[in-house]
Write a structure and sequence with these properties.
By secondary structure, this protein is of the alpha/beta class. The chain contains 11 helices and 16 strands. The chain is globular, with a radius of gyration of 20 Å. This is 3-oxoacyl-ACP synthase.
Length: 396
């Protein structure tokens, strides 16, 4: 696969707004999980909540898109010069040649929940009579409107792999000549459907999550927004590179991964092949590592049997919580920062390693020369994605 240049990228999560907030938190192994105070009847658990979302409504010109999810998107878009980068791409290629490809699992369902809670004799309250927000396409529609773009606009909703799979969509569209650049990423915000839904599956921990810990008790749910701008790489490219991806759908079970990691391994092998690299070339893997029983044991075994001891690996869910449809872009961002900063994130929260874990696991923060890295995203229903990145200047 010809590499794509990542011209700009950004994220906003419980660790803060923008790249430098995330870089500082990773370097200091300072997580962002807090005791749950979300909703009128909070579950006894911990969450990765983004501070200040409630206090910053959308600008008046975007009022029809007003909801928590789009507020979170707007916070992220304004970080790290991302808006200027996209506008520059629009100027280079034209509005019809830039795509918006975004992943989400719930989009603005929080606003729809509120509308149903406030029904008056079966009628939606006037302030929520805005059809644009009561649809899974709300996020992509909002971002397209922000940039006044006219290219393909796609929402990917494949659970926790959503905002990883959009990278693959962008590569195919650019390679086929349909577009010249793509805004990729995703947003998922806290809402009752997510918190109570995962709790009903007995997947939510009452304590901060502990990925790959032998005594882990489940996930901590978070919220996040992140975006990247992809274009064709030029000669002597200095931007970080997206060099490969793998996708698989094993459809083993609605909410449990294949016991032997079949789909995850297929996605991994596919990503290595597209990138033209071997497992031994990988310096760091950002693991999906949700702290659920089955996910972690399957992924731990896969990494242990597939990579040399020199490859470093960790989950960053202990920093941010599991951000669901935004997990792919958030963890891609943290992977890119690991390459930029030479800092391998700690596997925060784990104190007693699961015996299935191999020597690849970085239990504490490490400093390393990260030239090539992977980011894993494994969703419900056996939707699996693996992304491969290379540091600027590394031959692809």
């Amino acid at each position: 696969m010809p590499p794509l240049a990542i011209r700009a990228f950004t994220a906003t999560s419980a660790l803060g707004r923008g790249l430098e907030a995330h870089s500082r938190a990773i370097a200091a192994s300072a997580g962002g999980l807090v005791a749950n105070d979300f909703s009128t009847s909070p579950l006894p658990c911990w969450i990765g909540r983004v501070a200040g979302v409630e206090d910053e409504p959308l600008p008046r010109e975007h009022a029809e898109w007003e909801c928590r999810n789009n507020r979170l998107a707007w916070l992220a878009l304004r970080q790290d010069g991302f808006i200027d980068a996209v506008r520059a791409a629009r100027g280079r290629y034209g509005a019809s040649r830039v795509a918006v490809l975004l992943g989400t699992s719930t989009a603005s369902i929080g606003a729809t929940e509120e509308a149903y809670r406030r029904l008056d004799h079966g009628v939606v309250p006037r302030d929520l009579l805005r059809p644009a927000i009561h649809t899974p396409h709300s996020l992509a529609g909002f971002v397209t409107r922000v940039f006044d773009l006219e290219g393909p606009c796609i929402t990917v909703a494949t659970a926790c792999s959503s905002s990883a799979k959009v990278f693959a969509n962008a590569e195919r569209m650019i390679r086929l000549g349909l577009i010249d650049a793509a805004v990729v990423g995703g947003v998922d915000s806290l809402c009752d459907s997510v918190l109570f839904g995962f709790n009903s599956l007995e997947l939510v921990s009452a304590e901060p999550c502990q990925p790959f810990d032998a005594n882990r008790k489940g996930i901590s749910i978070g919220e996040a927004a992140g975006f990247a701008l992809l274009e064709r790489a030029g000669e002597g490219e200095q931007a970080p590179l997206f060099i490969g991806y793998g996708e698989a759908s094993d459809a083993h079970h609605m909410s449990t991964p294949h016991p032997e990691g079949l789909g995850a391994e297929l996605a991994l092998r596919d990503a290595l092949a597209r990138a033209g690299i071997e497992a031994g070339d990988v310096d760091y893997i950002n693991l999906h590592g949700t702290a659920s029983q089955k996910n972690d044991e399957v992924e731990a075994a896969l990494v242990a049997r597939s990579f040399p001891a020199t490859t470093r690996a960790s989950s960053t869910k202990g920093f941010t919580g599991h951000t669901l449809g935004a997990a792919g872009i958030l963890e891609a961002t943290l992977t890119l920062l690991a390459m930029r900063d030479g800092v391998v994130p700690a596997n925060l929260g784990a104190t007693t390693p699961d015996p299935l874990c191999g020597p690849q696991m970085a239990w504490q923060v490490e400093h390393a020369d990260v030239r090539i890295a992977l980011s894993n995203s494994f969703g419900f229903g056996g939707n699996n994605a693996c992304l491969a990145f290379a540091r600027q200047g590394v031959p692809a």
